[in-house]
Amino acid sequence: MTRAVHGGPPKLSSIQDPVRPSLDRVGDEIRRIVLSDFDDIEEVNEHLLFMRGKLFRPTLLLLSSRIEDGEQEHALTLAAVVELVHLATLVHDDAVDHSALRRGLPTVNALWTHQVAIIMGDYLYSRGVSELARIGNLDALAVLARAANEMSVGEMRQLTSYDALDFSEDDYDRLIAAKTASLMSAACEMGAIVGAPRYRETLARYGHNLGMAFQIADDLLDYTGTEAVTGKPTGHDLRERKVTLPLVHVLGRVGAAEDAEIRAFFTRLDPSDEEIQRIVEVVVTNGGLEYAGSVASRYADEARSALDELPDGSCVDALRDAVSYAVDRRR
After folding, report:
1. So what's the pLDDT on residue 331?
2. How far is CA 101 from CA 42, 105, 137, in A?
3. Is residue 261 assigned to a domain?
């Protein structure tokens, strides 16, 4: 069981306990897949492996693969591939956003060039696809290819959210469904493919709703969190004039004076900390955070409802706690 203690949110480490032995081997599997005899690529690989994140998506895949005592062949490889694709999207995102830091460490584009970052992202994608072709799991390959395509569309949608004060909630939903929820859904579905195929649709639905809740919570952290929690400076989205759900909800609901403040802010090329804090205050006082939190909770409830269709067990318990972890990271 991975229940939270004293009413607090569960820790990711406890969620990962049922699959810890396999999860500890994901790094080695990633290293095997991306190994290159080209020194320049190996140099970037070493940096990327050093800055590898919390392995949340591989955790979801491995947990999903063990819902039943079914065939789990290649689950470890699929988990590594999912993390590789996630890492590729981060490398590309940092290059597109010209970000200097990721998880407190210099980005590939900051240490090398934007061209190197784009090439390395492509390399990670292609190595992951090649590995799925090697093991011959066409179902998993199809799921991952679909998610990769959706994430590419999501990145293009994100470009339209810059300075887009007419960005609607429907636009936002489509963006995060493509950019975040698609890979979490794919991770859970790929786990089901190799371990619990009759629950494939259920776990894909769980992963989608979890991903939606996760991204909304992440966007809330930009207003409420600290750099230690998010791995990026608080106010980063506003600084880059990205429109996320808390602000989307407030737009059109504020008075003329605050509307003028928001529109003036989005004309700033390099907004100050004080200007960012003022927009945060406008969003807070007009209920943007409460609304976004309620939407995240709705998606979280949908994810938990999907799990009700699965057999009881420690992995299902962990997947349920993963929902609480996703939405409560701001605490």
Report:
1. 42
2. 20, 5, 36
3. yes
In the chain, how many domains are there?
1
In a domain, 192, yes or no: yes
**For residues 225 and 302, what is the distance between their CA atoms, to the nearest angstrom?**
25
Listed range (109-118, 160-169, 257-266) with the worst mean pLDDT: 160-169
- Read off φ and ψ for residue 189, nearest 5 degrees: -65, -40
User: Domain with 232 in it: what CATH number?
Assistant: 1.10.600.10
Residue environment code for 96-118, b if the CB has 16+ CB neighbours within 10 A, otherwise e: beebeebeeeebbbbebeeebbb
* Mean pLDDT of all residues belonging to the chain: 90
Confidence check: pLDDT of 263 > 70: yes
Expressed as residue numbers, the domain containing 241 is 12-327
Residue 4 lies in a domain: no
* CA trace torsion 103, 104, 109, 112 (10° rounding): -130
CA distance 96 to 237: 14
Amino acid at residue number 300:
A
On the question of pLDDT at 229 being above 60, the answer is no
Find the range with the poorest average confidence among 73-82, 89-98, 107-116, 232-241.
232-241
